[in-house]
Amino acid sequence: MLLRVINPNTTASMTAVIAASARAAAGPGVRVEAITAPMGPASIESHYDEALAVPGVLAAVAEGERDGADGYVLACFGDPGLDAARELATGPVIGIAEAAMHAATLVGRGFSVVTTLDRTRGRARDLAARYVAADACRGVHACDIPVLDLENDPSVRMRVVALGRAALEQDGSEVIVLGCAGMADLGAAVSAELGVPVIDGVAAGVALAEALVRIGAPTSKRGEYATPPAKPYVGRLRAFGT
Amino acid sequence: MLLRVINPNTTASMTAVIAASARAAAGPGVRVEAITAPMGPASIESHYDEALAVPGVLAAVAEGERDGADGYVLACFGDPGLDAARELATGPVIGIAEAAMHAATLVGRGFSVVTTLDRTRGRARDLAARYVAADACRGVHACDIPVLDLENDPSVRMRVVALGRAALEQDGSEVIVLGCAGMADLGAAVSAELGVPVIDGVAAGVALAEALVRIGAPTSKRGEYATPPAKPYVGRLRAFGT
Amino acid sequence: MLLRVINPNTTASMTAVIAASARAAAGPGVRVEAITAPMGPASIESHYDEALAVPGVLAAVAEGERDGADGYVLACFGDPGLDAARELATGPVIGIAEAAMHAATLVGRGFSVVTTLDRTRGRARDLAARYVAADACRGVHACDIPVLDLENDPSVRMRVVALGRAALEQDGSEVIVLGCAGMADLGAAVSAELGVPVIDGVAAGVALAEALVRIGAPTSKRGEYATPPAKPYVGRLRAFGT
Amino acid sequence: MLLRVINPNTTASMTAVIAASARAAAGPGVRVEAITAPMGPASIESHYDEALAVPGVLAAVAEGERDGADGYVLACFGDPGLDAARELATGPVIGIAEAAMHAATLVGRGFSVVTTLDRTRGRARDLAARYVAADACRGVHACDIPVLDLENDPSVRMRVVALGRAALEQDGSEVIVLGCAGMADLGAAVSAELGVPVIDGVAAGVALAEALVRIGAPTSKRGEYATPPAKPYVGRLRAFGT
Amino acid sequence: MLLRVINPNTTASMTAVIAASARAAAGPGVRVEAITAPMGPASIESHYDEALAVPGVLAAVAEGERDGADGYVLACFGDPGLDAARELATGPVIGIAEAAMHAATLVGRGFSVVTTLDRTRGRARDLAARYVAADACRGVHACDIPVLDLENDPSVRMRVVALGRAALEQDGSEVIVLGCAGMADLGAAVSAELGVPVIDGVAAGVALAEALVRIGAPTSKRGEYATPPAKPYVGRLRAFGT
Amino acid sequence: MLLRVINPNTTASMTAVIAASARAAAGPGVRVEAITAPMGPASIESHYDEALAVPGVLAAVAEGERDGADGYVLACFGDPGLDAARELATGPVIGIAEAAMHAATLVGRGFSVVTTLDRTRGRARDLAARYVAADACRGVHACDIPVLDLENDPSVRMRVVALGRAALEQDGSEVIVLGCAGMADLGAAVSAELGVPVIDGVAAGVALAEALVRIGAPTSKRGEYATPPAKPYVGRLRAFGT
What Enzyme Commission number(s) appear in the record (chains A, B, C, D, E, F) (predicted)? Predict the structure, then answer.
């Protein structure tokens, strides 16, 4: 089984963090390949960045289809381009916010999200409203660390632990969801300190994608996720047309 | 007052239809400029098309900011790039699905959407869930006409009328919302035949944008729609970075 | 275009405040007439007052129809008699809570309401549940100033600013909605101090009513808002029958 | 225990039907007095009628307070003036739509409402949204019989039975709620024919009001239902002021 | 009329507290019999206890049917076995959480629940979501007293009062619901101290069951609550089969 | 990794069907053991059966904990005893309705459930409301085949296919969820005929449980799923106490 894990931003060092977490979550016989988006922003910290990360994600999925990938994980917590990627893909496509939120609801009654910047909290709430039942997501909390600082700032773990502890208390939640692919290496350590399950979406995404492939559940091609109709594209995006 | 109406697809003849409807809806002293997206798909009929229409929309908004536009209307019923456009804009930005759905709830208890392709119905439902109260959108119906055929097919009006009539009956609704910018020229005729208000989002979008500018309600720059942080972009989208 | 703005309470000095805000919001060629309710309470501060303000509102709308009004604004934040007024009117009828809440969702992700008395907070929440999507209204806050004191108390603006600032912080909101027609003159000043859009429902109501008239969207007469069946009335309300 | 059952319309023959059903539902030691509204419409078939029935309801409640009533039932399925009446009353005030819907959810998973005119269906849905959990009310069906014809038209029972049977099937519901006080005498017969519980709101309202009085649960005077502040009223409604 | 009030736990002294409250709530001519569950846990403080209390509840309902009971009250705030009991019963079956929450919404706009252990708060929220409209239950608060300590601990009343007072303030609620059958004797005293209605579910359950029996509303046998199909059972539960 | 799959009913031949589907879904290195409930009903076709299946489920989970099981799947579509089982278990516990519904939302926008008896449709809807976002479950359809006939009736597959096809059309859904563990062997064949993903909850449950174990996500022991407090039990259920 071949799973492609796509880093929607264009920073290769972050792809490396993602790849490590992804590989650790895969079962025997699963090949995981991590891909950096071929175009777009260095990090995703606004609706603007997220929207402009989508072309890179779609180019990577199109390439994956040519290479015979069995499933995909989109490794940014905004799940950029998820619906469009599903139109292109034959197998399952999982966003890491989606994966983490679903997994969290399977091991506790309510979860809190710990994310990076305050301005992205709305997006996390929107995704929760789409993915899970109404009261599952009890709160979204920002640690105010820019995405690309996650890998260099030695205080990150400590701040995520402190924010997670406060969130459990304040929200009455039972599980922590890490709200950024750049936190993928923190799950086990934070869980050990807080004494609750801490879900990293990259690991959850790989494990769920593998699960869907194994039970023979591809993306439905009936209705909304059917292959897009062919048509001309113009300008810088000409290559995306047919 | 200068309002920019952006056609997110790259078909100029459709921009002309949009421009006519937009100008008819503007009050005295309002200048309406209709812009065709500078890159992307010829029409928007899938999540894939919609996602790839967003860079063109954002380029047009960025240009509008340089030109001093007071507000924007995004003239595709999927409201592509609305959140990201708001981050770029100083004044209000209105999507035509958003405008039409809000307007519809002001003149009746429930509305039905008449749109083009079956596969886009999910997107319309998602937008209704975001924009209006839970029971306002009573149904979304597709007339199965590709977007670019709207302007050439002489049977369009008849089919929209028939579908609208059936929708009013089946949904128990009181207002019809036209679910495609390419239907912008049909509103008055369909309303005359059905005897209920028929809302064209282009007209509604222009009138609402004008209303917001007049009452001094710009896009809030606190929180989610603050200006995006500057950062490098790579590849085909390099020009969107800073 | 003739718009009638109806003050549902019977205090003429408050009608004057409303009229000033209403006229400032109207475009060229729009005549705005502000009317004081011909019967009912001096101010509206309870369900009891609100219910008993409705006959006056309906009398004013009936008069408007005789005078050829193109649209109406009901200038009390409880939107008293909105559904019944729509049954009487040919053109659009907009409540100021409705107008302000719709406008607020077009310029930010979440709004807070700043209103007068604590006991009216439930009504504001009920209206939000009817008008806008579930998470748009993030909080309703009372400044504990009786309605008729708004015009005399020099500390009002300061208290509204302070309450608004606290609401933005506590609710994580991005827009302030003024929850009383008697605050119609405060919008610009409060917005300047808080740095976010502040929506006065009177201005929003006039601008939206004008927008609906311009795009040819009258109240739907199919279904719930059809003209009421004629019938006898008795007692003090005899004049409302036919 | 003294319960006042208020007929919000001004048709005394309908008060007689209501009184019979109300008395049959009261336990030993409960005195039930049925009152015809002292002003307003002959029947309630629109938002306009309903709004203008409220002053009569409030006059009757004020009189009830002077007479020492222990509780009230508002015997029109639109529950006109319920919130305002609670502000005036010391004891519990129950609307018959409220009573019937609550009772229905206690004896089945989902109910259907059988009401009079199509145009009142929206009001019934609004009340269901306020009173009961989201999926309890499975449908609202109109038999297209004007309110005052209910007592004269010998085909009413047959038509209610037929509509109820179709509703059970179509909605997958398990209980029928009668959607008009004028149907109060039909409950037992319709239930016998359909083989499911059929809830008449007048009976349910009396039984629930009695239950609340017996367990010592008056209307809460904390917050929204506190006694309204005193103030002057003018015009025809002068007598409602203080 | 014979009502059976079933204490789902196996502690007879708690049945005595329940019986006293139940009898006080019954009208003239109603015989109330309180039954201790014949098997299961001494108290119910977890999902595990609650699930294992259900066989005892069902045995008691089966016995009640043989004895001709007209209705049932399940006197544990988790309403254990409510759906299954309704399948067995001819008359109405009311859970005390259900009864209390319904009653609370009839006398105020929002209620707070004061319960025993923190871990049972999720169950109370689940029940509120099932029984009442979305914003009726404003908060669930735990006083951290084990169920069986309620009858011995002299500080209970004081702690419930303090918690209730804080809940009214924090939740903006207007009514208190007592979240444990073991608090059935506290209602009047707590209400006197807080000045708001305080609903004891045992009293509310008896009064509502009596109301339903009196208006002729049995459990619907159409659909979900039809008599269960006969079949063999094995092991310790053999006696529950047929 | 050891996963215990518990058949909550007491029919061993159905356990065999479940075991086959479960083993086919497990990855390399995962040992799957299928267990028949040691007490309770031969099949689960009512709330009564379901409630009385729970003691057997809990006995099996307690045994699994003694045997060092890493995770559990509850193989009945009503997910009987899920919350209580989580209190007992260290690792994850997944119900098959839960697993199937989550998996379905990952491969399509809306799913339809095809189940056995009409009377169980309400339970399926309740579970959907708890597990997934509001519009994910588009319909629940019954093929009217008793559970234990599934294995003997040669027409089952044909009827499930026909019902599934109608459901896709009527509900506008994109995925089919099989609503009974006894249908576990039908997934692939039905999917081949309908051309959409068909989710068998047993396979989905095993794959998800394995995924959660692999990413280190046990049941949270903070809050609602903490180990139940020890206490005495009496009667037939004495052995469940401590």
Answer: 5.1.99.5
